[in-house]
Specification:
globular; alpha+beta; three-stranded antiparallel beta sheet; transferase activity; Nucleotidyl transferase AbiEii toxin, Type IV TA system; about 220 residues; transferase; AbiEii; 8 helices; about 40% helix
């Protein structure tokens, strides 16, 4: 099957919106998987088109599929190509703020589905060069908070509470069991090899929260 034949078998949908100014707009690309699938990991790619995303900092990175890297001599293999990507430091801080905002809401408003992956990502990044330098970069920290408040604010949320000493990234008791269940499902289908137990993950992210809370104020 050629690349174009494979693409022709995919289905493309634009998620319906009631407000034409909704941002981001989401496009779904549905594909036929050659491996076992699950409800947790649907056979689709989501593309979010936004005019309000923070543009910096980014860098050019080469990407390719796992199959092409490991089977580069076969017909279906494709060449790597370069695209602008968000720096891990920014991703690290964005995930911190996303969880803090989520857990600052009333319990009935806290989302569960597929959000435990952010806890996993934070644990994986926290001791790397990217995680350490992100917490040292006060300018980037403040720029991301200001951008979220201006362009993607949550109703009723006080962004003055995004200072390091007030950051909360541990699921509250009211939802922690649901997060544990979500994490269990996520590790079955998205993680290669061994994964931390949920209790160990929470302990590690608690260490990160303490690290953030102890940052000196700007």
């Amino acid at each position: 099957m050629t690349d174009w034949e494979a693409i022709a078998e995919c289905e493309l949908f634009a998620q319906p919106v009631n407000d034409s100014d909704k941002d981001p707009q989401v496009i779904e690309i549905h594909y036929n998987s050659v491996v076992d699938t699950s409800e947790y990991l649907p056979q689709r790619v989501l593309i979010e088109v936004s005019s309000r995303s923070l543009m910096e900092p980014t860098e050019k990175r080469e990407i390719n599929s796992i199959l092409s890297v490991n089977f580069s001599n076969l017909d279906f293999a494709t060449d790597a190509y370069s695209i602008p990507t968000v720096l891990p430091q920014r991703t690290f801080l964005e995930k911190i703020f996303l969880l803090h905002e989520e857990f600052s809401q009333e319990p009935e408003k806290i989302r569960i589905d597929r959000l435990s992956r952010h806890l996993y990502d934070l644990e994986r990044l926290m001791d790397t060069h990217h995680g350490v330098t992100a917490l040292q970069n006060k300018e980037l920290y403040n720029n991301i908070v200001a951008h979220r408040e201006k362009f993607n604010p949550l109703r009723g949320l006080d962004y003055a509470n995004h200072t390091p000493d007030k950051i909360k990234i541990i699921p509250p008791d009211t939802v922690i069991k649901e997060y544990e269940s979500d994490y269990s499902e996520m590790t079955k289908f998205m993680i290669y090899g061994e994964a931390l137990t949920f209790d160990r993950l929470v302990k590690r992210v608690s260490e990160l929260q303490t690290r953030i809370n102890e940052i000196s104020q700007p």
